[in-house]
């Protein structure tokens, strides 16, 4: 039981230590909004880690920026729009399904269905290529003679 607790503590210790006390907002509601927004923004240094979890300097700067925008009275959408306008859509951990991204969202399922269709056609053709006619009696006799039966 103690081992499990230690492993869980180690697993979450890095994420808990990423946000420094000096970065936190004094209002708990605003801080929770900032943490929620930070979980959806990608650290541009660490790639597939949110700025809430990352210890990189750029992630810290982004966390501070998010908190500054929230303290200034911006809505969640305005904060996200500001960060995306500044750093590009790559900063979003969950990209939008509009514009050029729609191609990326649709490409996977389309390619999967295309592959399944091609495989089905191949198997159907292969099955239909089997000989439909049986051997004539002369051919059977000749085959038996060749095989020595």
Automatic annotation (TrEMBL):
The organism's place on the tree of life at top rank: Bacteria
Keywords: Cytochrome c-type biogenesis, Heme, Iron, Membrane, Metal-binding, Signal, Transmembrane, Transmembrane helix
UniProt-listed Gene3D superfamilies: Cytochrome C biogenesis protein
A GO molecular-function annotation: metal ion binding
Spans through the membrane: 102-123
CDD domains per record: CcmH_N
A GO CC term attached to the entry: plasma membrane
Protein name (Swiss-Prot/TrEMBL): Cytochrome c-type biogenesis protein
Lineage: Bacteria, Pseudomonadati, Pseudomonadota, Alphaproteobacteria, Rhodobacterales
């Amino acid at each position: 039981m103690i081992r499990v607790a230690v492993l869980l503590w180690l697993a979450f210790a890095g994420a808990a230590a990423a946000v420094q006390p000096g970065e936190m907002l004094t209002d708990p509601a605003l801080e929770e909004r900032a943490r929620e927004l930070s979980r959806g923004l990608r650290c541009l240094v660490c790639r597939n880690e949110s700025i809430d979890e990352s210890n990189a300097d750029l992630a810290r700067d982004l966390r501070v920026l998010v908190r500054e925008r929230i303290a200034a009275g911006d809505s969640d959408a305005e904060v996200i729009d500001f960060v995306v306008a500044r750093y590009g859509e790559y900063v979003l951990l969950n990209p939008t399904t509009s514009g050029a991204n729609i191609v990326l969202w649709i490409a996977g399922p389309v390619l999967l269905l295309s592959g399944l269709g091609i495989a089905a056609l191949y198997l159907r053709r292969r099955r239909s290529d089997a000989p439909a006619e049986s051997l004539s009696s002369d051919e059977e006799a000749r085959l038996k003679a060749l095989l020595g039966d």
